[in-house]
UniProtKB/TrEMBL annotation:
Protein name: N-(5'-phosphoribosyl)anthranilate isomerase
Biochemical pathway: Amino-acid biosynthesis; L-tryptophan biosynthesis; L-tryptophan from chorismate: step 3/5
Species name: Crenothrix polyspora
Record's keyword annotation contains Ribosomal protein: no
Any one GO BP annotation for this protein: L-tryptophan biosynthetic process
UniProt family annotation: Belongs to the TrpF family.
Gene Ontology MF terms: phosphoribosylanthranilate isomerase activity
Domain N-(5'phosphoribosyl) anthranilate isomerase (PRAI), residue spans: 5-201
HAMAP family assigned to the protein according to its UniProt record, in alphabetical order: PRAI
């Protein structure tokens, strides 16, 4: 099975359209006001309307109030929610929408226990722990922390780009790769060349 690709943190229509035509499977929209990649609903709507068919839209939240999440779901055609904070399984599953649970990877992170707790998630997104940032750090974590047997599909994130995508696929064998900083020219601005190079590296990784 080929490795799926999600690119997170689009703020501009043209960047998302380019990524879609380059072959990305999912685009992530950050609804977290402290992030430099945060999008307002009207901005997100423009991005989503410009996308071709069969590209999934993932809405990312960090410990957001239920009303904010419901408002995004009311106004936008969201395929999947991504919870990037300390949301409980009950909080993640209350929207009747598929969800991904992000996990900040540390030495004692128990993936099996988390997979049991979030058993109805469509995947666990494993990201780099940072004491001061919730995500989008551009830093890789120690992939040896990931068990060989994955109880849920693994979406690998954290400091991925065209230079390490192939090794990531060979080492972790994830369901998908997720990148943000590594395909940017500035925060929230995706670089078309870096996006294309990332997708090419993944295609190459899948074949080798
Ligand atoms: O991107 C952000 O600014 C962000 C802020 C707060 C929580 C999560 C955030 N991004 C989540 C993602 O899915 C990123 O793609 C993931 O953290 C990997 O980022 P990077 O290491 O920059 O590739």
């Amino acid at each position: 099975m080929r490795t799926r690709v999600k690119i997170c943190g689009f703020t501009r229509v043209e960047d998302a359209v380019h990524a879609a035509h380059a072959g990305v499977d999912a685009i992530g929209l950050v609804f977290y006001p402290p992030s430099p990649r945060h999008v307002a609903i009207h901005q997100a709507l423009q991005i989503v309307r410009a996308l071709p068919a069969f590209v999934s839209v993932v809405a990312l939240f960090v410990d957001a109030p239920e009303t904010s999440i419901r408002e995004v779901l009311r106004q936008l055609p969201i395929d999947c929610l991504q919870f990037h904070g300390n949301e409980s399984a009950e909080a993640c599953r209350m929207y009747n929408t598929r969800y991904i649970k992000a996990v900040s990877m540390q030495a004692d992170t128990d993936i099996s226990a988390l997979a049991t707790h979030y058993h109805d998630a469509t995947g666990l997104l494993l990201d780099t722990y940072h004491p001061a940032a919730k995500g989008g750090t551009g830093h890789q974590f120690d992939w040896s922390l990931i068990p060989k047997q994955h109880p849920l599909p693994i979406i690998l994130a954290g400091g991925l780009d065209s230079t390490n995508a192939r090794l990531a696929i060979q080492t972790v064998k994830p369901y998908a790769l997720d990148a943000s900083s590594g395909v940017e020219s500035a925060k929230g601005i995706k670089d078309p060349l870096k996006v294309s190079a990332f997708l090419q590296a993944i295609n190459y990784g899948d074949k080798s």
